[in-house]
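Late entry, pyridoxal-5'-phosphate complex.
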Amino acid sequence: MENDTLLKEIRSETGASLLTKVQKDFIGLDTQYTIANGEKTRRIYLDSTASTLMMGLAYRTGESFLQHYANTHSLMHFGAKIATKTYAWVHDKILDFVQADQEHYTCFFTGSGTTAGMNRIARAFNHLQPKKDVVLVSIMEHHSNDLPHRKHGGHVIHIPVDTHESKMGCIDLDLLEHYLREYEGRVNYVSVTGISNVTGIINPINEVAKLTHHYGAYIVVDAAQLAAHVPIKMSGHEDPGMDVDALIFSGHKTYAPGSPGVVIARKDLMAKIEPEEVGGGMVERVFPEKYYVSNEFPEREEAGTPNILGAITLGTAIHVLDLIGMEKVLEEDMELTHYCLDEMLKLPQIVIYGETCMDTCPRAGTVSFNIKELNHGLVAAILNDYFNIAVRNECFCAHPYVEKMLELTHRLQIYEARAKEIMNWHTEPWMGMVRVSFGIYNTREDVDLFIEALKNILENKSEYEKQYSINEAGDYTHNSFIFSCKEYFNLSQMVQDELEI
Ligand SMILES: Cc1ncc(COP(=O)(O)O)c(C=O)c1O
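Prediction complete; structure with ligand written out below:
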């Protein structure tokens, strides 16, 4: 026991020093833009929930690998051997990272994010139990963990999460059980997010798994936000009911933009059905009249030439996170999120969405808010144009959740707005939020600059408002400040300059 504690301490110290080392090694942390007052300042990137910045080391391993680049389907030459071996290593590394035992789970890559993997799993799980026609998801899901089930999975039922008085919290296990009982025998699978991309609220996925399995359904986890923030344990629980059947995440949200989406799933389930995608690399033999699908994982699930370079950069980022230790990553993340929430709660004109008590509902990495009487689009534009702070606004591909939260918080009759022309609805002042989100590179200084910016906006609301007009698309545009994308990145010019033409 004492040894365990000592080991944990040593690991935590090593993790802390590794984290400090890695934190500054991201491409885009020093990017500067000229802002509306004419000053050139450093961009503060607070949009990691959408996509994280590239880890420098991941970029460098990718670049170094390109010296050997070859297709993993080639076999005998040196480059092909290096590519094939490293590509296989990345799969194993990821299985390790999410604690999925290699004998029973496979990891395969698909598409450019979580969306492709979720569609694959929805189609696959539908074939597994075709007679079970219900899929349970929570109301807090991203559209990518809702629409694929509506299209391929069956009848989707959204479980509410507004059981924490008027604030929406994490998935309520009693309520989930109520639904599992009500639809007992009909639920094929439950698919929930590990972390909400709107509020950063963390769900107890292994508890959800236990309950779901008890009622004879499978459990799918959307780990798009979870993977880079929270330690994951897919298998090896004392109670096997807590193991997860399938989990999906995005490489571009895990410090490797340009890398693929990742699916980790139980081999025995995937083996029962023919792979959704067919083509080269996933067959044993092909004859004009028939073909034999490979029994090997992950080959069976990866038709065609994969995104080898992306997988290698992702493998690097995952390896680094693993070396730091996800417990350490989560600890730092929650501390920064807590700090940001506390500072924002001191500003009475700010409305924060979702349960803000982190003891009741832990959060990691994301906070969504509005400034009373200021449109979310205007706030996002001011933060960008005057403070060089990059945030996201609108509904974050989670319309039902955002609508419900706005409705509960402001007692609004959102449904009336639905009757309005669909093109206009998002320009309504309350139909959206502003989101700040963090990666491992963000610091207290970033949060302080953001809070200062909020205070400045609150003090000068009407001055800022006068500087903007709304264009036809409903976006706020500055009346005089013009930002030229080409001044900062001009692809064709760069090519011509390099080629001296
Ligand atoms: C919780 C959640 N699920 C799914 C997705 C979709 O991921 P991708 O765009 O990488 O396919 C996102 C993206 O923001 C997300 O935050």
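The longest helix spans residues 2-23. Will revisit in the morning.
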